[in-house]
Amino acid sequence: MKVEFFNKSFLDKKSASTNEAVPVANYAVAGMLLLIICVFLYRIVLFIPVSLNDEWIKIRWGSTVRDVIVKEKIVLKRGDLKDTKGKLLRKEGGRAPGVFINGSEVSLSAILRRGHRVTIRPGVDIVEEVERKVETIQPATYVSGKGAFLSIGSTGHPGMKIVNIGSSTGRIISEEIVRASKPVMLKRAIHTTNQVVALTFDDGPSSLYTPQILAILQAEQIPAAFFIIGSQAKKHPGILSEMAATGYIVGNHTYSHSMLGDASTSEIFGEIEKTEKVIKEATGVGSHWFRPPGGSMSLAIVESATLEGCRTILWSVDPLDWMRPSADTICDRVMNQIHPGAVIILHDGGGDRSATVQALPKIITALREKGYSFVKLDEIEGSE
Ligand SMILES: [Zn+2]
C-alpha cells in the first residue's frame, strides 16, 4: 500500500510536472507556425509577381511602373535625331521610350497587378527624313543707265532648282540647279542731246498748289506733265480736266502711292488700272505715262504699265523738293544736275509745296539763261 502510495504520489508529481511543460512547448510551436504563416502571407499578399521584359520579378503590392523603373535602375531616355550620315542633329530628338502592360501602352503612374507582363521599349534614334522640293529661282533685276525713260532690255527668265530639306529641322541639306535663271535687264535712257528739258510734277493734284503751278506754267507757255495719285485726283476731277484741256500731260502715279518694288503683278496692275479709270473719267482719255512711286523698277511694273498703254518714266534731275528745302536750294540743285534731255521731278502735292511754287519761276529763268527750252515728254522721247 505504501509503495502504491509512493508510486501514486510519485506518478502524480511527475504527471503534474509534464502537464506544466506541454503548454509552453505548444505556445512556442504555435508561435513559430504563426510567424511562418505571417511571413508566408506577407510574401504572398504584399509581394506579387510581374514579368519585366520577359523576366519574372517580385514587386511590392500597389507599385507603379515608375516604382519598378526606379527600383530596377532602368534609364528611360528619348533617342536622338541624326542625319543620314549619323551626325547628331538634335539631342533627344528621336523616338520616345514606351512602357506597355500586356501589350498596351501605359503611363508611368499605371499600377501593376499580379501577373502583369511589363515591356519597356527604350528610346530609339531616328534618321531625319529628307523632303525633295522643286523651287523657282527668281531672276535678278539689273538696271543700266541713268536716264528717265525706263524700258526692258531683256525679260530674262526664272530658273528651277531641286532643294533637299530636312523634314524635322527645315534645314537645307543640298540644292541642285536644274536650270539657271537669266536676269531681267532694264534700261534707263536719255533720248536726246538737244538742249531741252521736261518738267514733271508728282503727288498731286493739290487744290492749293497745283493751280498756282499751272498758272505759272501757262503764263510762261511751258509744257509739263503731272503724275497724279488716283485717290487724290478723285477729289479734284476739275483740276485734271483743266490740265488735259490746256495741253498738259496727265500721268499715272498709282491710286494710293504704293511702293511697288515687292508688290505682286496683280497689285501693280490694279494700282495702275484704277488710276487710269480716274483719269479717263476726268479727262475723257487715258494716260500714256506711268511713274512708279519712289522710282521702283521691276519687270512687272514696266509690263503692267505697258498693258495699260503707258510708258514707264522716272526722272534724271531730282532737287528733293519734297524735303522742303528753300526755293533757292531747289533751284540750285536743279541747275547743278541739269543736262540735255533732262526730266526734272518736282512735287505739286503731298505736303507744303510753297517752296516749289516759289522755286519754279527761278528754275524757268535759270534754264532759259542756259539755253534750255521746255518740251513735252513725248518730244524728248521722239527726238532720238
Ligand atoms: Zn510720288
How much helical structure, as a percent, in the residues? 25-40%
CATH superfamily of the largest domain: Glycoside hydrolase/deacetylase
According to CATH, what is the topology of the largest domain?
A: TIM Barrel
Q: What CATH architecture of the largest domain do you see? A: Alpha-Beta Barrel
Give me the Rg, rounded: 49 Å
How far apart are the first and last residues' alpha carbons, in Å? 172 Å
Count of beta strands = 21
Bulk shape: rod-shaped
Strand content of the residues, in percent? Answer: 25-35%
**Which CATH top level class of the largest domain fits?**
Alpha Beta
Number of domains: 3
Bound molecules: zinc ion
In which order are the strands of the major sheet placed? 2-1-7-5-6
Count of helical segments?
Answer: 10
Largest sheet, if any? Answer: 5 strands, mixed
| Helix/sheet category | alpha/beta
How would you characterize this protein structure?
This protein has 384 residues and is of the alpha/beta class. It folds into 3 domains: 81 residues, Ubiquitin-like (UB roll) (Roll), CATH 3.10.20; 59 residues, Single Sheet (Resuscitation-promoting factor rpfb fold), CATH 2.20.230; 192 residues, Glycoside hydrolase/deacetylase (TIM Barrel). Strands 2-1-7-5-6 form a 5-stranded mixed sheet. It has a 5-stranded mixed sheet with strand order 10-14-11-19-18, with helices on one face. Strands 15, 16, 17, 20 and 21 form a 5-stranded parallel sheet that branches. Strand 15, helix 3 and strand 16 form a beta-alpha-beta unit. The N terminus is likely disordered. The chain binds zinc ion (ZN).
